[in-house]
What does this fold into?
Amino acid sequence: MNASAGKHHTLVVLVENKAGVLARIAGLFSRRGFNIVSLAVAPTDDELFSRITIVVDVKSAPLEQIVKQLDKLVNVVRIHEMSPESSVERELVVATVQASPEIRGQVMDLVRIFEARVLNVGTNAMMVSLSGTPRRVGDFARLLRSYGIIELQRSGKVALDALEQLDA
Amino acid sequence: MKMTGSQALMKSLELQGVEVVFGLPGGAILPAYDPLIDSSLRHILVRHEQGAGHMAEGYAQATGRPGVAMVTSGPGATNIVTPLCNAYMDSVPIVVITGQVPYAAVGTDAFQECDITGITHAITKHNFLVSEAQELPQIIHDAFYIATTGRPGPVLVDVTKCIIDPNNPRSEMTWREPSEHNLPGYNPKLKGDPELIRQAVELISASERPVLYSGGGILKARAAEALKALAELTQIPVVTTLMNRGGFPDDHPLCLGMPGMHGNYTSVTAMQRADLLIALGVRFDDRVTGKVSGFAPQAKVIHVDIDPAELGKVRRPEVAIQGDCRIVIESLIEQLKDLGQEPKDRNQWLHTIRQWQKEHPLVYDTWSDGPLKPQLVLEKLRDNTPDDTIVTAGVGQHQMWASQYWKFNYPYTWINSGGLGTMGFAVPAAIGAKVGRPDKMVWAVDGDGCFQMTAQELVTAAAEQIPVKIAILNNAYLGMVRQWQEMFYAERYSEVYLSAELPNYSQWAEAMGCVAMRVDTPEEVEPAISKANEIDDRPVVIDFRVDPVEKVFPMVPAGASNDDIVESPLRNNL
It folds into this structure.
């Protein structure tokens, strides 16, 4: 997965916080042949609505069709495309990696370089986490791989408009 | 006012102006059938839930009002999936109420449980699962609003049994009038952007070979009058897609009729040669465009549709106008008139079109003594019934011949299954149409294959004294499939023969309470039709034994360009 590929677009979708809405969106993507690269969803500060950040692969279909079809869902309130230049993007990764005492120091170096955090340490493994730009998170996850990943979860990208955008 | 959920459901339907419900009761929906007795609603008890759905569609298309069906959970709900999908493809406003197992049992694989909201996500405009009695009035209100506004479509309301069962405390509720719609994500746009209308008017004024490509959106928007005004003002010829037959009168000099795979030569070719398509309420369906890259290659496109997702989905328009067809056409007319220009001289274009019409008429063998021709039956039927007769059709050869040979001069007189191509649509759709328009004569033109799929609804029609008339064009084959096997599979016929004798259609029709007739020769056609037209207290079925090898022409082979239209070989005999 290469989040920087030009064919990926980030959509922020405001939806009614109702049962089955995510199924409607996922179903729409699958039946129209649109590809989801990542998906993050949680309620907003107003519990009547949820905010979904979807990274879509527009090689599979024109972005315009994806947006228009999404907009037809009755529970979808608003769709907004986020451009990397005018938004702040964050992603979280949590990973458990092999870290026997001999290589624990190397893993710790990586954690320090990336300003990641150690969440837990076991006899032969460590749990670490990092939040940052999707690219940084991707780099961190890739470097962890060489130590042996036991379990890894990325959150999918979330994005907000940059403050300059809001002031404009 | 205190009441139960089931009483609220009836009251909500009454409040929407519903007069007729097509349905069949069962366990989960059973409590709703008790207050139904005391309601003002007429219930038509169908013999299969698919019939209820198609009747609701026929009713909606004939009247312009939403059709309503009510069935139980599980198999009742799955049996109505086909009509839901049909209504979704053809943008027909229906509201389907399904029973669901009690909320506490949802997710436990209870008896007759089925996740019908999950199943129908992809084939409804929207659906609801209702688990609180108090929510019912608002949800029914919203369901009708969604079904009938914007691009119309089917809405399913899945009602858990506990909230309608008077023995369950969850069914207790206090009636409150539904409020304004609280649907923050739903706000159909009706008015076209004035700047885009201006651009469209410019293109229209500059065009030399324009065609009005009119589709089902015309009928949905009640825009037939507006379309006629636009065509007459601009003197632009009109093609009427399968979903808009009758939306512009066939006897109008500017009407070119049906385009597409089995469209007539002139309609197909006019679009191929056009320099401008004014596409109104159409979706550039593959059955119209043929190979998309070869469709109307020289034409600029103005595309008007209420559904923005249709704009640019198949063909990139020069001007894309989101809005209601009637309102946008009226704006176009207004701006065209304001322009004050004399309409461009398009006599050359109209002359070319007249030549095509003269040189490329629809033809079938009318001279030799052979088996009864289905086209002849349709011509006789057309000429011996009132001009505003409502015609329904199933899917296949008979449907195409009906569209080709009938003269549709009134909107809402042609009801068929276009997008989904649902065999068996004709009989239940005719029943629904007749229930909605008892003042009109209703004929179902059906094939023998289609008839066998839903004929049992004639029992419903007989029991309810709904006098529909059925013309079976019985060619003993799944005729359209047979035609493809003849033309594209080297005459290797595979599983298409049905037999003209089995079933015995006359006996079957009589057993269902219908008057039955059988017609074998051209001479018998008119007397049978006259007799059928006189019967007004029960359904009539005529078994027309027609030529089993007759094919539908013209034809654009699947995947070919519309330039490669194949006409009847008989044209050389003219």
User: Anything to note?
Assistant: The beta strands of chain A are 8-16, 35-43, 49-57, 76-82, 87-98, 117-121, 125-132, 149-154, 158-161. The mean pLDDT of chain A is 91. The first strand of chain A starts at residue 8 and ends at 16. Chain A touches chain B through 21 residues (CB under 8 Å).
